[in-house]
Amino acid sequence: MLTGYAGEMNLAACSFGAVGTLVAFHTGIAGSGLDSRLTVQGVLLGVAAAAVVGGLVALPALRLRGLYLALATMAFGVFLSTMVLRDTTEHHVLGHTFTIFPTGSITVPAIRVGPLDLRDGPAFLITVAVLFAAIGTGLVALRNSGYGRRLVAMKDSPAASAMLGQNLVRLKLSVFVLSAAIAGLGGILMSSALGAVDTDTYSIVVSLSLLMLTVVAGIGYVSGALFGGLLAGVGFSLLVTTFNDLAAADPDLAGLYRLLGHLVTVSPALIGVGVGHNPSGTVHQVVEGYRSLRRARPVLVGGAVLEAVLYLLTLSGAMDRWWFGILTVVLVMMLPLLGRMLMPAAVLGPEEHARQRRALSEPADDDVPRTERDLRALDRALGLPAPTTAAPGVRRGTA
Asked: Looking at residue 309, what is its pLDDT?
C-alpha cells in the first residue's frame, strides 16, 4: 500500500511488526505455561500501537521522498533492532516494573478466539488466508476509491497533486498509519506462527528482503504481495533446505546441489533484473503470458497432463514432494515461454507473428542501397530544399 499505491518508501516493515508483537506480548497474553494464549484484545492493541508508531515515524519524514525517506525509515529500523529490542533490563515507571525484551527472546503463544484455537496448524493457515483475503479485498477497494486515486496522483506527481489542492501531508500521514497497522498485524501473526522470536527475527535485513521480493513479484498488486511473501516464507527457505539435504544424501553430487542452493539464495537479485523489462512485476508478466495461452489450448492441455503425471508420481512415492514442488514452479513459469516456442502464431496472434517474421526476414534499412529517386522523395517528405549538384567524385548520402 505504501510503496505500490502511494510511491513512498519504507525499509523497516518488520520493525512495525516488532512493535505490534511487543505490545501484544505485554498486554494480551492470558493464562500461563502451555495454557497461555494470545487474546484478541492484545492483537488489537498491538495493531493500534504499530499504527501510532508509524504516524510518529512519518511526522519528521513528511517532507522527504525517495532515497531520503528510505534512509529515514531504515534509520528507525536500525535503531529499533539495535537499541530497543536489545534492552533486557528492568524499568520502573509509575510503580510498574517491566522489561521490553526479556532475556533477548520472547515466546508468543497462539491466538484463541472463543472456540477457535489457532494452535492447530490447519486452523491457523485457514484463518491467516481469510485475513489476507479480507485485507487484500479492502486494499483493492481502497485503490479504486477517491482516496486511492489521490494516492496514485501523489505518486505520479506530488507537485501536480498539490496544485490541484490535495493535502499531501495528510495523505502521507494516513497512508503511513494504515500501512504500519497492516505491518503490525503481520508481525503478530508471524511471531505467533514461529512461537519464539528474538532480535534477529526483526532485523533490517529481513525487511529489505521482504521489500525486494515484493517489488520483484509486483509491488502494485495484492497478488505481488502474496507471491513475494510465499517466496520469502516458503519458497527460498524450502528450496535451500532441500538442496542441502540432497547434498548430504548424495555426496557424489554434493557440489552441484550446493551450487544450486547458492543460486536460489541470489535468485531474487537475478529476478530483479527483469523488473526493468517489466516494472509491473513477475506475477503480472506471468498472468499476461497465460492470457495469451488461451489461444493455444494444446499447450495448456499438455501442461495440465504433465502436472497430473508429476502428481501421480508423487502419490506413488516415485518422486519426493519437494521435487514435485520445484518442478511445478518450473512448469508454471516456463509454460508461457514454451507456448511461444511451440505455437507462436496462436500465442502472438496472426498479425504480430507475421510482423515478427517480416522483421526477421527483411534486411535492415542501413543495408538497403538508396537511389537518387529515393533521396529526392525523402527530401520532399522532410521539406528540404532541392539539392544542388554535387561536386565531381562526391556521392550523396555520405559523410
From this structure: 92
